[in-house]
């Protein structure tokens, strides 16, 4: 399961260089996309259309060097980290997208997924547009450029463009002298606003503000456009907002994507996961000696389970943090090494024990099978699997890379069948009705990947 | 002095894979651009809009590997080698440009320089266009995409687009099922058509046809659009052609840019250089013991001088062919090492001799100074420098990277002053009136960089 | 604090290729050395002296590629991962060391540190030896080569060589048809023997056996030489063993170096850490709301503390696992970013809480200061630091890279002074008398870095 | 045909940094070895045993960067470029070899090939030596280290060691405070001494002195040891010299290996090649329209042929200097592209002409075949091949990489058979009796690869 992007933007009204802040900000958002990274900066007091940027495939610390960073000086800038399924040649698709248009330069970072991108591309093509990438950012940039011809400001152009967009988008846009943060009306993906001295920051998550040493101001509201101007004004355009109860905050951000030290739309990710663990015990209790998480994403729910149940929390797996993202797999016959390369069972922690094992989700089930087997081989008497989300059953149209239905273990299988495949003694998922409780019922959520019900109509889709 | 690009395209009507042919073709055109290289291919019998491409900074043999070539399979494709002055981040500007537009996909390789690119960009911007690069190819692609909406075929769109273009362009364009070669009305840059079995090839020079084992058919005419269709027709649209005597074939292609084993617009580059050498003797004779060229570009003119004068040809400099394009220069105090790293004087060839030294051009004069000094230090009694082109005095607007006037040694200096700086005993340039004789008077040439007279009016320029 | 090496060796008596097994084994030992990695293999049925090897700076997954692994085929081999303080040019020092000598080829992997290497080098020099590296392996190889001249077998030569060695060494040696594991008499560094089908494996830790799918047979005893012969015999030479109570197993292996899923000399690393946590509570109790570890090395001791004290275990820091070993630090003024790049405080977990924070050690104190501050900034009411080892006060001569005394925070400072620097509300270390309890008193340990008392006399050192 | 090495050493008695001089020197010797390059430097006024070095696979400009050069500061140093047939893992074999021994440090660069290396290795092994490389330098270093124990100076140790060496060696050796140049008694490989201000330089060829801006002093004599001491003495030990007429200067250095701007042992390489061309005409005249060389190594002999015969010199092939050493060969069916990628025929120069084509040698004949065919295809009426060396028939034991006899086109074939394979109209080689004339009979030469007669007896070889 992959998130598609993290976005970051900063405008230092005091004129300080922002490239370092973007660099650190992207590092803290790296969990949102590990395929490519990019930074674009500009000098608002310098040449109007001079944007310097660098982007490439790889992690932030792989892409940026002393050398290429030294060319990235400016007091305004945006950054992007991206995940995609395309291969090496998708370097073209790395963000942020930087364009020249009638009013100078725009750089744009996008998190989310448009549901009408194809229609928009076709429509634009019919008026002579050409496309050099396959990313939504290009469509959005086109619309803004076109609307800009009719309006007096870039933020109005963004507003007009947003009326044509469907689907999920959290945007950070740099124009020659303005920094803009905007979010789709449903609020699928998060976007926060912060401040450090006289510098304003937009970021996907609050952890990026903490990293930058900035204070959190507020979340950009779903449907809102926030514009930071050169004279220090923070303009808000809420004309695109819809009723709060129609919004659709992605619940999986809280369950898995976001960093647990982030707070999104007023809800702590940590709290949500603690609750998920507690609910799992309440709804599917079990007698056991210890409770543990699949590192590292299952740990907090495991702590919540432990706290609620009184069953001691333990660590049962060792995670090899030196294994990089990519490594060769020499022996064909040892194909299943994949999981054991990254994990080792703490035999002395599990021997003879009844273990509750918490994971954030089960997608295909292969990893869960291996981990359960590893614990049993290490001497666990029983392994009770608890999953801090409901089963995945439907596609996500809004920025998450869910495999096809046929690859999903829960598709067309009973709970007992899944339990049998995974090899656990018992198995339980988070109940669907618990999802909105994770955010205290304070947010309207999108839970489409679990239930098939999406806040926005998706053309041609029927649950 | 740098050429800006080399272009190549091939369509195998028998369906064979063309990527290898493009690779070899680009190697043979490497002298036309050493900064970046790219290949885009498509399968005319496969998915309509599926173009595979790879491009990066570097020489052809640096950019392409077994791995990335293995992804480039197709029966139609274009390639590009490019020179530019921009830095590492100009990866975005590497060719060929590949776009999606209303009718599918276009890939475009361009050699030359538009003189109205800025106006076209501005005009396009005013209708909502966005630009992601700073290369002319993007402007051309836009125009084609727009014109395509109004016409029934891509070649008609190319024809309409060409009516808006000013300046120099030799184009090779791949549409889903057609390969197109086109040339500006003045014919500044070369473009030839060849055939190998049932595969048609466009290339900047005939040497690329030889490399591919293809036979030369003819040159694309200035102003002509040649279209190779899926059913094997070779369509010619000459509506853009102008009077032959108004054309402006770049004479410096013959003097320096093109490979001596190429024949362009019916004129052998080798012959032109032999003639330049002969003219140098006829117009500026000198008594000497040997005549030699500055390797390697001066060698053929030196042979021509030798043949005409009867003075024996010799080799006086050793060229270190192992020195790459880039190397560090450890000692600041040895800055002048630059030329001696690449060249060594053949003392025993020059000792006590009166040497006629032929170079193709003198730009800033620093290299010439060093070489003359090297020969004198090696014992040459006299060094008579002969230059197989007139002095550079004016800018080129049509695809050659001439330094600013103030850097040109000939600007505001008498012949005697130049001779004195270079340190030669005598110095003579090719006479301007000889330029058209290099091509037997059979072609109308552009000699603007020498005389300031350009075949096409250049906005705001006055000689 | 850095370990210096991990060693691995395997001999498949059935003739299967062992390179993949070594690769995976080294991955599981990566925590013991991250600077360089190497593999040497041989074919016992092929050419006698043909050893294939590859080694380079970097992590295992960085050093080895499909391409260089494809050259490493053999049924016997050794591997090495190494940490060193030297720079890029220390590629020469990467292991394993491969030599040719009178009886063919030897490849040697070494973990530990000789205390008489300089004397041995000098002595060897005086008989004409030359040295190409600065690693102990070279000295050991020389001694073996010399002793081999006097004896009938390589294992006897190893035995004779060991009589001259002082200090710490766990060795895995590959001769043309034997695989040898050996350990210094004190047993400073671990070495285990395992078996998978008909393949015998030596490795620094049992986690490497688990990774390989091999079963644990036993530890190589301190002072013992174990030889696996071509006909499947497992020879043991215990002539170098000393009294068990004189041994000196490095206690820091249990506290920090080794993986918690390993069992060394019969003692589970996990158990030792759980005990350390329990002892910390018993000896230095404190009232608190939660107990947490500094990820990831402090986590198990924290679980032990929690279990013994009844104070709930929690997670208070988020570790950014995407941050690589190296990254640039753009802004000079944000030097202190180092720790926050890798860690984030889970505000909602600590807000208003009294936190017991467990770390495995405090070296210079700078990281501890930052983490305590981060927790306080996140709202922790109190931070009580507990360290699962005594203060570092003395050098290690046996293979651990302890900084100089003046850099150690505990040197010449009272506990209160340290507490004040770190910023914690209370601070306590593991008591020295608890060290041997970590291993149940079943092993004689080396605790020199804490107490200055070493099992083997170190020339010129006085506590 | 490959040379095996180039050597360079410099000692600046004024204390200036020599790393840049070595770098440039190695660039000028790059033609002698293109597989690896290395530099080792030391500070004679600094720490006695501190040698800094860097070496790696690749060309000089590929191996050395600003970064690694910045670590190479010293007033004494040696450099090495190497050719070998081994693969990537031969990084261990790159020169110079740097060792620690009883008297500190030695760095050693070697050009040539020992004929008794195996015996010496065996003998050394029997006294306990270990070997980490397969290069002769290691054997030589061992012998020097051993002899050093018995004598009062490093140069005496070199002298004693040389008594044990058989075969070809030109050595440059750096001890902590001396720079030594030495040459085997036969003088197979060249070595010259030069001076620049107060810095003394040893180099394989004079072109490296020219590059360094140094003046030529003299050649190191065959069998001589020249020592530059810290107080500026130039010591000469000629005890190893033999009668001049027994010497064996490699004649192929003059014909092919050395740069034509070098003078070796008093004989200009340029002159030797001019003579070879003249002899070819005298001994094997032919009527023709033009004479040309296979670029670039055949050019000077072609000039000699032209001068002697009066047949005009011409250029008939274009060499693509942008093609790197390595490039992929996409299409299997275009395997024969190899030569045409690098060369193009100048059709207009050869059309209808009778061409004399001069090459320095024919090894397997495949390249010659392709070139002759290329010229014929380009319209040459006749192609008369003249080779400026006799046919290769025997192995070289002294530092040249000649293929096995069965791969040599001249082995067991008549001249007519070879001519037929190559496809030339006539074919002639340089006569064996002309070889010594190339050096005016002033040097005793080794012509073993042509005649099987070697100046030094080679064990087990019979002509």
SSE blueprint and pairings:
Four copies of one chain form a homotetramer.
Chain A: E1 2-3, E2 5-12, H1 19-28, E3 36-42, E4 51-57, H2 60-63, H3 66-70, E5 76-82, E6 97-101, E7 104-114, H4 117-125, H5 136-148, H6 154-164, E8 167-175, E9 178-183, E10 192-196, E11 199-203, H7 206-212, E12 215-219, E13 225-228, E14 234-237, E15 249-250, H8 251-257, E16 263-264, E17 267-268, H9 269-283, E18 290-293, H10 299-309, E19 317-319, H11 337-342, E20 343-345, H12 347-350, E21 354-359, H13 366-377, E22 382-387, E23 400-401, H14 415-422, E24 426-429, H15 435-438, E25 445-446, H16 448-451
Parallel strand pairs in A: 15-25, 18-21, 21-22, 22-24
Antiparallel strand pairs in A: 1-23, 2-5, 2-11, 3-4, 3-5, 6-7, 7-8, 8-9, 9-13, 10-11, 10-12, 13-14, 16-17, 19-20
Description:
Four copies of one chain form a homotetramer. With 463 residues, chain A is of the alpha+beta class. Chain A has two domains: 5-242, 4-Layer Sandwich (Glutamine Phosphoribosylpyrophosphate, subunit 1, domain 1), CATH 3.60.20; 267-451, 3-Layer(aba) Sandwich (Rossmann fold), CATH 3.40.50. Helices cover 28% and strands 26% of the residues of chain A. In chain A, the strands form seven sheets. In chain A, strands 4-3-5-2-11-10-12 form a seven-stranded antiparallel β-sheet, covered by helices on one side. Chain A has a six-stranded antiparallel β-sheet with strand order 6-7-8-9-13-14. In chain A, strands 18-21-22-24 form a four-stranded parallel β-sheet, with helices on both faces. In chain A, a hairpin with a 5-residue loop joins strand 13 (225-228) and strand 14 (234-237). In chain A, helix 1 crosses helix 7 (206-212). Chain A is globular. Chains in contact: A-B, A-C, B-D, C-D. Chains A and C meet through helix 1, helix 2, helix 7, helix 10 and helix 11 of A and helix 1, helix 2, helix 7, helix 10 and helix 11 of C.
């Amino acid at each position: 399961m992959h998130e598609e992007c993290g976005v970051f933007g900063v405008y230092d009204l005091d004129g300080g260089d922002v490239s370092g802040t973007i660099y650190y900000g992207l590092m803290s958002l790296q969990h949102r996309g590990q395929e490519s990274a990019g930074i674009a900066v500009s000098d608002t007091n310098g040449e109007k259309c001079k944007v310097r940027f660098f982007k490439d495939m790889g992690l932030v610390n792989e892409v940026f060097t002393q050398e290429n960073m030294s060319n990235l000086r400016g007091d305004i800038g945006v950054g992007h980290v991206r995940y995609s399924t395309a291969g090496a040649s998708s370097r073209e698709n790395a963000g942020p997208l930087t364009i020249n248009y009638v009013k100078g330069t725009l750089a744009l970072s996008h998190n989310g997924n448009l549901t009408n991108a194809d229609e928009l591309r076709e429509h634009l093509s019919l008026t002579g547009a050409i496309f050099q990438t396959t990313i939504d950012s290009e469509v959005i940039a086109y619309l803004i450029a076109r609307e800009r011809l009719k309006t007096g400001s870039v933020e109005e152009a963004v507003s007009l463009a947003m009326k044509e967009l469907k689907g999920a988008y959290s945007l950070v846009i740099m124009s020659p002298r303005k920094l803009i943060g905007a979010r789709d009306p449903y609020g699928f993906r998060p976007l926060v606003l912060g401040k450090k001295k006289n510098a304003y920051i937009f970021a996907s998550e609050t952890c990026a503000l903490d990293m930058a040493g900035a204070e959190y101001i507020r979340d950009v509201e779903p449907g809102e456009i926030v514009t930071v101007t050169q004279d220090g004004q923070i303009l808000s355009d809420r004309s695109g907002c819809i009723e709060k109860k129609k919004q659709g905050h992605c619940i999986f951000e809280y369950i898995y994507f976001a960093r647990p030290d982030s707070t999104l739309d007023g809800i702590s990710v940590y709290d949500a996961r603690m609750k998920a663990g507690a609910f799992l015990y309440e709804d599917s209790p079990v007698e056991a000696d210890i409770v543990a998480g699949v590192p590292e994403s299952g740990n907090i729910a495991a702590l919540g389970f432990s706290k609620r149940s009184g069953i001691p929390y333990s660590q049962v797996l060792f995670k090899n943090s030196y294994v990089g993202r990519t490594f060769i797999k020499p022996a064909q016959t040892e194909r299943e090494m994949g999981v054991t390369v990254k994990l080792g069972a703490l035999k002395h922690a599990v021997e003879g024990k009844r273990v509750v094992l918490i994971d954030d989700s089960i997608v295909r089930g292969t990893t869960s099978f291996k981990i359960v087997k590893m614990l049993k081989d290490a001497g666990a008497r029983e392994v009770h699997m608890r999953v801090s989300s409901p089963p995945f059953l439907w596609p996500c149209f809004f920025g998450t890379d869910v495999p096809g239905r046929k690859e999903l273990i829960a598709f067309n299988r009973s709970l007992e069948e899944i339990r049998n495949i995974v090899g656990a003694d018992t198995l339980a998922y988070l109940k669907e009705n618990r999802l909105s409780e994770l955010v205290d019922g304070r947010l309207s959520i999108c839970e489409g990947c679990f239930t098939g019900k999406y806040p926005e109509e998706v053309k041609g889709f029927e649950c």
